[in-house]
């Protein structure tokens, strides 16, 4: 997982894209479904799990800590959990591959169990900051030995019983929030996270679904989330909706390629995740939600989208957490829109799988877009629907969403846009290339 050969590729659209597709299961929900099932006593079932490398890293780690996890031939996963407080000491280092979510959430779980675990990862993950979870989990009593800068490889020595804390998030991060709530599950008393800016709330929804005592109070824009520890989780049947972050790629491809008409079925539209679609509509996208329904406690719909003439926009900083993973593909939209798009408040993008502001600015410029990189965002002057020049090789820097964004940019460029390595796409979107080809794109 941490050692793969680069797989270069380029993509083109010889004509309009059309058809109906599904995208793989939601990555955030998939991770959490495995973790909570592994902590419930008894057998849980998960349908629609994302079988991408990131989620498989979580599955392997939960197995290494005692859970019994198997995939049926029908694609349903069954998990026999060990119970909160009963995770076992893993015998070998936990290989997190490219996955920040696996790493940070599992650090939370280990922190309040009487076990020690070492976390390792690929070159991208080994550059990402873990101090943001080390700090609160350390104040709950866990001990850490980290590489310089609070990075992987690192070792966590959990403490049981841990000490409950009340923690105000200094950065808008669902991973940090979730790490603390998961640590709180095996901590006596109430663990509380104060969230000044709301982030994705899948952990809260699913913890409640598994029977944890969890409350959310709203104080203006601030959310106060409290979980009672020494919880007993009851096994569940989880149905994972399609990932809105993955759906962003076919949706944008259809918007940009002239004459296209595409439906993406079964997309999760939790309001803490759906910011991209709101911004696209505000830019003039012909985009509609059909068949709106609730699946497994999460809002879901089919997205019907047609090629549209799009206008540049000022993206309000407040919307960023609800589309934090979608800025790479939004920057591609901005490069083709009419007029200027301004984004701000995006410092967090610098510590994702790559520095997404720098990587996107560099790549978009290389294919002819007009981009100004600022400390906290990009300013992009679009072509007004004219194709980009293309004719460059993009360094995706082990970042799946950069690779997929430039695959889509290649569909609307005159000369080929080569992505140096599509291999990381397998972390979140197995079948991405087949999906685009099925809609009428070409890939070589
Ligand atoms: C995630 C939270 C976000 C997001 C990541 C998944 C999660 O990260 O970028 O892809 O599942 O909690 P941050 O918590 O760092 O914002």
How would you characterize the overall build of this protein?
The chain has 444 residues and is of the alpha/beta class. It folds into two domains: 9-25 and 241-443, Enolpyruvate transferase domain (UDP-n-acetylglucosamine1-carboxyvinyl-transferase, Chain, Alpha-beta prism), CATH 3.65.10; 27-239, Enolpyruvate transferase domain (UDP-n-acetylglucosamine1-carboxyvinyl-transferase, Chain, Alpha-beta prism). Helix content is 29%, strand content 29%. The chain has a four-stranded mixed sheet. A four-stranded mixed sheet has the order 2-15-17-16, covered by helices on one side. Helix 1 (27-39) runs parallel beside helix 2 (53-64) and helix 7 (244-256) packs parallel to helix 11. The protein is globular. The two termini are 24 Å apart. Residues 28, 101, 173-175, 178, 200, 324-325, 348 line the site of shikimate-3-phosphate (S3P). Keywords: Amino-acid biosynthesis, Aromatic amino acid biosynthesis, Cytoplasm, Transferase. It catalyses: 3-phosphoshikimate + phosphoenolpyruvate = 5-O-(1-carboxyvinyl)-3-phosphoshikimate + phosphate.
Question: What's the short story on this structure?
Answer:
It is found in: Cytoplasm. With 444 residues, this protein is of the alpha/beta class.
Write the layout of secondary structure elements.
Blueprint: E1 9-12, E2 18-22, H1 27-39, E3 41-47, H2 53-64, E4 68-71, E5 77-82, E6 94-95, H3 100-111, E7 116-120, H4 131-139, E8 143-147, E9 151-157, E10 166-168, H5 174-185, E11 190-195, H6 202-209, E12 214-219, E13 222-228, E14 237-239, H7 244-256, E15 261-268, H8 275-282, E16 286-295, E17 298-306, E18 314-315, H9 327-336, E19 340-343, H10 356-366, E20 370-374, E21 377-381, E22 388-394, H11 400-411, E23 413-419, H12 432-438, E24 442-443
Parallel strand pairs: 2-15, 3-14, 6-7, 10-11, 18-19, 22-23
Antiparallel strand pairs: 1-23, 1-24, 3-5, 4-5, 7-9, 8-9, 11-13, 12-13, 15-17, 16-17, 19-21, 20-21
Helix pairs in contact: 1-2, 1-6, 2-3, 3-4, 3-5, 4-5, 7-9, 7-11, 9-10
Bound molecules: shikimate-3-phosphate.
Residues 28, 101, 173-175, 178, 200, 324-325, 348 line the site of shikimate-3-phosphate.
């Amino acid at each position: 997982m941490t050692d793969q050969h680069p797989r270069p590729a380029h993509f083109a659209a010889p004509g309009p894209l059309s058809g109906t597709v599904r995208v793989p299961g939601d990555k955030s929900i998939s991770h959490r479904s495995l973790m909570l099932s592994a902590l419930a006593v008894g057998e849980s079932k998960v349908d629609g799990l994302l079988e991408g490398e990131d989620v498989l890293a979580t599955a392997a780690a939960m197995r290494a800590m005692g859970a019994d996890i198997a995939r049926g031939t029908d694609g349903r996963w069954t998990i026999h959990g060990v119970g909160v407080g009963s995770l076992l000491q893993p015998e070998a280092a936990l290989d997190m591959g490219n996955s920040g979510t696996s790493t940070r959430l599992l650090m939370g779980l280990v922190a309040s169990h009487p076990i020690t675990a070492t976390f390792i990862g690929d070159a991208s993950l080994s550059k990402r900051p873990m101090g943001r979870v080390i700090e609160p989990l350390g104040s709950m009593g866990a001990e850490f030995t980290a590489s310089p800068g609070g990075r992987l490889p690192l070792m966590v020595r959990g403490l049981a019983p841990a000490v409950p804390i009340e923690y105000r998030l200094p950065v808008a991060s669902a991973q940090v929030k979730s790490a603390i709530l998961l640590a709180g599950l095996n901590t006596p008393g109430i663990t509380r996270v104060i969230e000044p800016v709301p982030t994705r709330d899948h952990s809260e929804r699913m913890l409640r679904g598994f029977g944890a005592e969890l409350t959310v109070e709203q104080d203006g824009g601030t959310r106060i989330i409290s979980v009672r520890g020494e919880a007993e989780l009851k096994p569940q049947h989880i149905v994972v909706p399609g990932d809105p972050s993955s759906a962003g790629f076919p949706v944008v491809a259809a918007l940009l390629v002239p004459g296209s008409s595409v439906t993406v079925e079964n997309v999760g539209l939790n309001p803490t995740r759906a910011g991209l679609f709101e911004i696209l509509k505000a830019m003039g996208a012909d985009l509609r939600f059909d068949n709106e329904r609730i699946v497994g406690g999460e809002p879901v719909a089919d997205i019907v989208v047609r090629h549209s003439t799009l206008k540049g926009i000022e993206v309000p900083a407040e919307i960023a957490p609800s589309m934090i993973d979608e800025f790479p593909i939004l920057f591609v939209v901005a490069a083709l829109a009419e007029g200027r798009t301004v984004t701000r408040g995006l410092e967090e993008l610098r510590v994702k799988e790559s520095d997404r502001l720098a990587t996107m600015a560099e790549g978009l410029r290389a294919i002819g877009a007009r981009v100004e990189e600022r400390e906290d965002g990009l300013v992009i002057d679009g072509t007004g629907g004219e194709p980009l020049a293309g004719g460059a090789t993009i360094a995706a820097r082990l970042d799946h969403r950069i690779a997929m964004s430039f695959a889509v940019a290649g569909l609307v460029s005159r000369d080929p846009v080569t992505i140096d390595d599509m291999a990381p796409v397998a972390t979140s979107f197995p079948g991405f290339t087949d999906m685009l080809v099925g809609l009428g794109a070409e890939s070589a």
